[in-house]
Amino acid sequence: DETEFRNFIVWLEDQKIRHYKIEDRGNLRNIHSEEWPKSFEKYMKDVNCPFKIQERQETVDWLLGLAVRLEYGDNADKYKDSTPDGAKNADNTAKNAEPLINLDVNNPDFKAGVMALANLLQIQRHDDYLVMLKAIRILVQERLTQDAIAKASQSKEGLPVALEKHILGFDTGDAVINEAAQILRLLHIEELRELQTKINEAIVAVQAIIADPKTDHRLGKVGR
């Protein structure tokens, strides 16, 4: 509609673009004048629009872009952090799904945070911050989960071990290293025992499924 188009152009100039002084907008505002097309053509040249007046769709799009740029320039502080609601929701969904997808490993804040965590958890420093972050993840998974904390809080009674009574089988030439090796060997033996216990439990569970229903391993006998 020609009238709506002319009103639209006047509204953009009055409210957003404001290229002319108020007193110089008379010819553009006179939308019912036969001279309005000439006034509009002059206006397009004055605002440096690259399109001809016959190219209305392109002209409208360009003027809207100009209006948006000017509106933003006048209220940059207001709009600089604004995002469309749809994009905001999409960004939040993406962040919830992949919180580290846009992580900048060279960001000083990231490096400082990893270093602070490493110091807090007493993890050895490394030149690669991603390696330290991986070590932190492993430690948290193995030591700081609810199951790990519950297991660690269970008191285990045992007898003190005299290392000198356990033969290492080789000599490194350093007493401290020999003692560390003895401790590691004892820990390894303990892990093997736990593994064997789990294997035995698995075997019993399988037997309970595939064995004759009359077989009751808990009673230590077969049949009734």
UniProtKB/TrEMBL annotation:
Q: One short Pfam family name for this protein? A: RLL
State the coiled-coil residue ranges. none
Spell out the InterPro entries in the cross-references.
RTRAF (IPR019265)
The UniProt entry, under PANTHER family, shows: CLE (PTHR15924)
By sequence similarity, the record places it as follows: Belongs to the RTRAF family.
Q: What is this protein called?
A: RNA transcription, translation and transport factor protein
Native species of this protein? Cisticola juncidis
Q: Source taxonomy lineage?
A: Eukaryota, Metazoa, Chordata, Craniata, Vertebrata
- Which gene is this protein's source? Rtraf
